[in-house]
Design a protein that fits this description.
The complex is a heterodimer of chains A (about 375) and B (about 700). With about 375 residues, chain A is mostly beta strands. Chain A has one domain (about 1-380): Methylamine Dehydrogenase, Chain H (7 Propeller). Helix content of chain A is about 5%, strand content about 50%. Chain A is built from two helices and 31 strands. Chain A has helices at about 1-20, 80-85; strands at about 35, 50-55, 65-70, 75, 95-100, 105-110, 115-120, 125-130, 135-140, 145-150, 155, 160, 165-170, 175-180, 185-190, 195-200, 210-215, 220-225, 230-235, 240-245, 255-260, 265-270, 280, 285-295, 300-310, 315, 330-335, 345, 355-360, 365-375, 375-380. A five-stranded antiparallel beta sheet of chain A has the order 1-4-3-2-31, with no helix packed on it. A four-stranded antiparallel beta sheet of chain A has the order 5-6-7-8, with no helix packed on it. In chain A, strand 13 and strand 14 (about 175-180) form a beta hairpin. With about 700 residues, chain B is mainly beta. The chains are: A mainly beta (about 375), B mainly beta (about 700). The interface between A and B is large, with 98 and 87 residues.
């Protein structure tokens, strides 16, 4: 009899324990956060706001989308989830590029292998396009071009060559693809040519050092221009030139900027003294930020330069004029509002914590800052207010 | 079971007598009768009184947390980490499934501060400083113990003093009854297409020499379903069920050992072999399923070590011990070019040579002095991507350690211990064109006090202080595109104050109780963390972090008997506030728009966690229920809603029965059902854990 009561007690104790500890909250998709950051802000020209894509560290599935509206000076953090609750696992892993074309907002989600297409006035999901290891997007004449690392595996080198996918922006389907170099990064369209910067970043120290030039009429690579190792960003100016960044090898070869004349497709200038992680053009001013680590010296060199594309000369080596650069740990993204001239620098900090977006006035004085998602990186201005 | 206890006692007394073991103060003095706990209670806290087959005890004044023998089996654990979840103050990082990486962290100091010892000798990993405990089977394990600070037994090697916390795995030593051999065959099968077979063969060659051979083969597909579901703030939401794939493991483990006894001591020699091939399923992040480009990474491991030990008590006032080890580890990590990321085929070879000698002097019965010296040599070679080959130093490291420790065990119930560890580290590179890190010369102290005010009442007060460091690993210093050779060691300071109580009753329903509580304050200084540079592929290591940890560990273990039914319970609870006070976490003067994460709880450490284990035995039946609770945690990047991770709690049940067969043969059968309420949870964000799973074990011994 006694034995029985013992077992009953155990069962009772077990049941009580289960009840006590059952305190898991239901799992909700997080609502976005609104921060009134600059209520005195106003719309300048046709730019009503901007979207910011946070990359999120690899494997953390923390790509996220933020929006800032000039109308009310409010920053909306992490808006994708609440606007798209039915999309499985939110925006995904590593947001790598963000652009607006034809009223649609395109986000390239690198490690989730897809391009997200949203309505630019609501940030609501319209469609997604599967592209393995996709990196950047460029537009021309009703088509989107997406660079991707994962082309076919080459038998000879056991490595994977990159490609560019051509997407019809009306049907949102891939209509063609073109093989380029290794690990292609940013692209630019000049005339009917698509320029693709090939990095070969996964093949270090045997980096790629070319730009693939694709004829957009035939969508075939015409030739490659030999430029410099580990190419990354590419930015056309208003004079038919392309500015191309080389990240170097972090040991003996420094990061630098190259100028290519698109009429001859030749390298005309090598700017050894213009290290380059990211750039943004406003008129004739090319804003160039650089954060370059060297494993031999163990030091990280940071610079904020403006280059005049008309005179091809340096305007300043530090476009932040009030000393605020000391408070930025890793400058990561740069954007300039072409209407107001105010510019933005993002701080990626330690890559695993929320970053900071800093807004500066035209003359380089700090205006405001706001906490973003992890690794704030890509900014696109919009002429539609977010509904 | 009675037989085992008796036998244990005999062997224990034999060892004690043979080694002339000094004052066996504490429970045993009161006699075994006062502790009629079932054998399984021996797991609760490793108390001095429990007869142990495995080690010579000498005034270990602060008991460890230990699980041993039968109790280990009853927990129905896959690997040693499953057993460790029941300890207070311990966090396990588990990437899910049988093949996922599993590491131990004690009191939030960081897994690289926990020394992992196998049969008394540390398992090294000079490459990254962590040991994957998922590779250690419980099949041949006699006991697993966790010590905060250090083992408070001064007769030990300098390495035993050299980590902030220590985890000891003790393999089974053969015990013979009336035969001169033991055989055991075991087969396990269950979820994840698991099939596991093992055998053990013990042989008694003479009264003083015996051998043991143990081998195990395991295969699992590692496949299991997992589910993510979320509700939208204004309705809607998603609910997706996926299958974890590329989590298969095939492993072979074999061990052989010789055990010998000499006058006043013993010796042993052991060889260990492990070989495995596994897939890494990676993070279960959002993927587009329109294309088949999933994580296909593969890892092969091959570990071999040889180790030997000799301990002898020469006289009442002098004992010595020698230990030596050679290990040779190979690891191959492959990312095939078909996968979405960088193709890679890296090979790593590690070697370690280790030698230690300890000498214990006892000028008086209450005073002991130990001097120990260790010498260790490590090497790491790697071959892989061109980047690796072009810039890898191929490091070699010589570590010299010397420890001086003394203890006073006074008749008034006061025990005092103090130790000082000296460490010298010299790095070299096989590649002469790359500079290695500078030499290190470091002294580190520790002190332990224990006080038992009343002879008749087993109530002990205890306290310890310890300062220790971990060396930057080879990866921290030299990893291509990440390492930084200017790193300093990472220091920890620990302060602990605790109380322990034990009482047993010979008659009545209440058989006994053990209880303990500890409060502690730890700091981690110059914490080595990875910091990014210009892009996601290029990182470097820096001494940046500063963490303060305040915690309380409580455990309570009552036991009951109702006629032939024995019930033991063990409840443990841990409170931990582990805060990141790294300067860089401060928000700066940017106004209210910029958040501050200074002082936030560090990632993956729950403030509240606990476990409850209930074991019932009736004749040859045994039923075990265990419950584990881990409170809310945050992933990397501050305590904000996007980093929140849900609490999880699982219930496991196991039922076992032994059958006696003719000719002294014994058949055992056990059924384990884990996570019976099918909770979907993650220990590490985006590494989903399995839902309900089961396992059936059959064993035959004779």
């Amino acid at each position: 009899m006694r034995r029985k009561t013992g077992f009953i007690r155990i069962c009772a104790a077990t049941a009580i324990m289960l009840v006590v500890f059952s305190c898991r909250k239901p799992d909700y998709i997080l609502p976005g956060e609104e921060i009134v950051i600059n209520p005195w802000d106003s719309i300048s020209g046709d730019i009503r706001g901007f979207f910011l894509l946070n990359e999120g560290n690899m494997g953390s599935n923390k790509a996220s989308l933020d929006y800032y509206g000039y109308e009310d000076g409010t920053y909306h953090r992490n808006i994708y989830g609440e606007r798209n609750p039915n999309e499985v696992k939110d925006l995904g892993d590593v947001g790598n590029d963000l652009k607006i074309y034809g009223g649609k907002l395109w986000a390239v989600i690198n490690c989730s292998n897809y391009v997200e297409v949203m309505d630019a006035s609501t940030a609501e999901h319209l469609s997604k396009i599967a592209i393995p290891n996709c990196r950047y997007v460029a537009f021309n004449d009703g088509y989107a071009y997406v660079s991707a690392y994962a082309g076919p595996v080459e038998i000879a080198t056991d490595a994977r060559i990159g490609f560019v996918a051509k997407i019809d922006t009306a049907s949102l389907r891939i209509v063609d693809s073109c093989i380029v170099g290794y690990q292609p990064e940013e692209m630019a369209v000049v005339g009917n040519k698509l320029y693709v910067a090939n990095s070969g970043g996964y093949r270090a120290p045997d980096y790629d050092s070319t730009i693939s030039v694709i004829n957009l009429d035939t969508f075939e690579e015409m030739y490659k221009i030999n430029v410099g190792i580990n190419l990354d960003k590419i930015e056309p100016d208003n004079y038919g030139n392309l500015y191309v960044s080389s990240r170097g090898d972090h040991y003996t070869i420094q990061s630098k900027t190259f100028i290519i004349d698109t009429r001859t497709d030749r390298v005309t200038d090598t700017l050894d003294l213009l290290p380059n992680s990211s750039m943004a053009l406003a008129g004739d001013s090319l804003f160039v930020i650089s954060s370059e680590y060297n494993y031999i010296t163990g030091r990280n060199e940071i610079s904020y330069a403006i280059w005049n594309t008309a005179t091809k000369s340096i305007v300043t080596r530090n476009f932040i004029k009030d000393g605020m650069e000391n408070q930025i740990r890793i400058p990561y993204g740069i954007a300039v509002n072409r209407s107001s001239g105010e510019f933005f620098v993002t701080d990626a900090k330690d890559y695993v914590s929320p970053g900071t977006l800093h807004c500066f006035t035209l003359d380089g004085r700090w205006k405001w800052a706001v906490t973003t998602g992890d690794i704030p990186a890509h900014i696109v201005f919009t002429t539609h207010s977010l509904k | 079971m009675k037989k085992t206890v008796l036998l244990s006692a005999i062997i224990f007394f034999w060892t004690a007598a043979a080694t002339g073991a000094a004052p066996m103060r504490a429970p045993l003095d009161d006699g075994m009768q006062e502790y009629p706990f079932p054998d399984s209670l021996a797991i609760v806290t490793d108390t001095l009184g429990q007869a142990t087959l495995t080690a010579v005890r000498r005034t270990e004044i602060i008991p460890s947390q230990t699980l041993r023998g039968e109790q280990l089996k009853r927990l129905g654990s896959n690997s040693v980490t499953d057993a460790l979840r029941y300890f207070s103050g311990v966090q396990i990082k588990d990437y899910g499934g049988i093949g996922g990486l599993k590491t131990i962290n004690v009191r939030s100091l960081g897994s690289q501060h926990v020394g992992v010892f196998y049969d008394g000798i540390q398992i090294g990993n000079a490459q990254n400083g962590t040991v994957d405990l998922g590779k250690f089977s419980l099949d041949n394990m006699e006991a697993v113990s966790v010590y905060n600070g250090q083992k408070s037994d001064i007769f030990q090697s300098a390495k035993d003093f050299a980590s902030a916390a220590a985890f000891y795995m003790t393999s089974r030593r053969p015990v013979f009854t009336d035969k001169n051999y033991n055989f055991n065959f075991k087969i396990r099968t269950g979820s994840f297409d698991l099939i596991d077979g093992s055998f053990t063969w013990d042989h008694k060659i003479s009264e003083s020499i015996s051998t043991s051979v143990n081998a195990e083969v395991m295969n699992t597909s590692g496949r299991y379903k997992f589910r993510y579901s979320k509700t939208g703030p204004d309705g809607g939401g998603y609910d997706t069920t996926e299958v974890r794939r590329n989590g298969d493991v095939f492993s072979i483990r074999a061990e052989a050992a010789v055990f010998g006894k000499i006058r006043g001591g013993d010796w042993d020699a052991k060889i260990y072999f492990y070989n495995s091939d596994r897939g890494y399923p990676g993070a279960a992040v959002k993927e587009d399923y329109g294309i088949s480009l999933l994580n296909e990474d593969r890892q092969k491991d091959r570990n071999i070590f040889l180790q030997s030990s000799l301990t002898q008590t020469v006289s009442k006032s002098y004992s010595y011990r020698f230990r030596a080890k050679y290990s040779n580890d190979y690891m191959n990590y492959v990312m095939p070019p078909e996968s979405t990321v960088q193709p890679m085929d890296n090979h790593y070879w590690q070697q370690e040579l280790y030698f230690t000698t300890s000498h214990l002097f006892s000028p008086f019965y209450f005073w002991h002095i130990n001097i120990s010296a260790d010498l260790q040599w490590n090497s790491l070679d790697a071959k892989g991507s061109d980047m690796f080959n072009a810039n890898f130093i191929q490091p070699r490291r010589i570590t010299g350690l010397a420890a001086l420790a003394t203890s006073f065990n006074l008749d008034c119930g006061l025990d005092l211990q103090a130790s000082l560890l000296y460490t010298y580290v010299h790095d070299m590179g096989k590649r002469k064109d790359i500079e290695p890190a500078k030499d290190k010369n470091i002294f580190a102290p520790a002190a332990v006090v224990s006080y038992r005010p009343w002879k008749k009442t087993d109530l002990t007060f205890r306290a310890f202080y310890k300062k220790i460091f971990r060396m930057p690993t080879f990866n921290d210093l030299y990893y291509v595109q990440a390492g930084s050779r200017n790193l300093k060691p990472e220091y920890t300071d620990q302060y602990d104050l605790g109380i322990a109580y034990r009482k047993g009753f010979a008659k009545g329903v209440f058989a006994g109780i053990e209880a303990s509580a500890d409060g502690y304050y730890n700091t981690v200084k110059d914490k080595i963390i990875a910091t990014p540079t210009s892009n996601q592929l290029v990182w470097t290591m820096v001494n940046l972090g500063y963490v303060e940890i305040r915690g309380v560990d409580v455990s309570l273990a009552p036991s009951f008997r109702f006629g032939e039914v024995g019930i033991t319970a063990r409840l443990s609870y841990t409170f931990q506030k582990a805060q990141d006070f790294t300067e860089e976490k401060k928000g700066g003067d940017f106004g209210p728009g910029v958040e501050d994460h200074y002082g936030d709880q560090i990632p993956y450490v729950p403030v509240h966690s606990g476990s409850a284990v209930l074991n019932c035995t009736y004749r040859t039946w045994s039923l075990n229920y265990s419950f584990i609770y881990t409170g809310e945690r945050w992933m990397l990047g501050g305590n904000i809603p996007v980093n929140y991770i849900q609490p999880w709690y699982t219930s496991d049940l196991s039922l076992a029965k032994t059958f006696s067969l003719p000719h002294g043969m014994e058949l055992g059968a056990a059924l384990d059902v884990n996570n019976i309420f099918d909770q979907q949870y993650e220990v590490v964000k985006w590494y989903p854990m399995p839902g309900t799973n089961f396992r059936l074990t059959l064993s035959l011994s004779f």
